[in-house]
Amino acid sequence: MNYELKDIQWGEYRIGDLFESENGDFDIQKSHINNNGYFVITSGLMNNGILGKSDVLSKIFREQTITVDMFGNVFYRSFKYKLVTHARVFSLIPKFIITENVGLFFANSLDYFKNLFDYNHMCSWKKIKNLNIQLLIKNNQIDFDFMEKYISLIKQESLNKLKEYLNKQTNNNYELSILEQDAKINLMILLGKNIGLVICLKYILQAVLTKIH
């Protein structure tokens, strides 16, 4: 990956020019969580902000969007979901075509929000829409292709290290085809939080080794 990073260029973009913001339309409570319907997103890091599932009648947000909570925690969402209204969490709807890898790159780039906001100074769309984000550019345009390839490389590197670790621990030649989906899901979540590779592997292994045993 390093050789590809040498010649990259960066540009600065206003967040409000890249995204629109939407909020939930019903105050979903814990009593509405019934393991049916769609995932419900709230504020906080526990379970990556996922409160549970509910089929209560409320607005459904599309997949391939990003959620931001009142503390500035940012997550890319690859699935459809609902939002609570009491916890001040909102959705960023991209004005461009977004893929899983591009979404992860953006979530990582917006991770600095958590350093700006807290309970006494809560994050909101009004407060972030005029902030800037640095993005990779090529020919003065956002380089989505590079983002796609870069995140793919990180995923593959992590999966290779995971396979190497499993083989050392078990003395077996494990193929990751069966485990890859679970590993990727956990990796996607952690990449969005800018956690280092070693820590990524720690959490991925927890999920994968549980499957093995």
From TrEMBL:
InterPro entries: Restrct_endonuc_typeI_TRD, Restrct_endonuc_typeI_TRD_sf. GO terms for biological process: DNA restriction-modification system. Keywords: DNA-binding, Restriction system. GO terms for molecular function: DNA binding. Residues 9-163 form the Type I restriction modification DNA specificity domain. SUPFAM superfamilies: DNA methylase specificity domain. It holds the Pfam family Methylase_S. Belongs to the type-I restriction system S methylase family. This is Type I restriction modification DNA specificity domain-containing protein. It comes from Mycoplasmopsis felis. The lineage of its organism: Bacteria, Bacillati, Mycoplasmatota, Mycoplasmoidales, Metamycoplasmataceae.
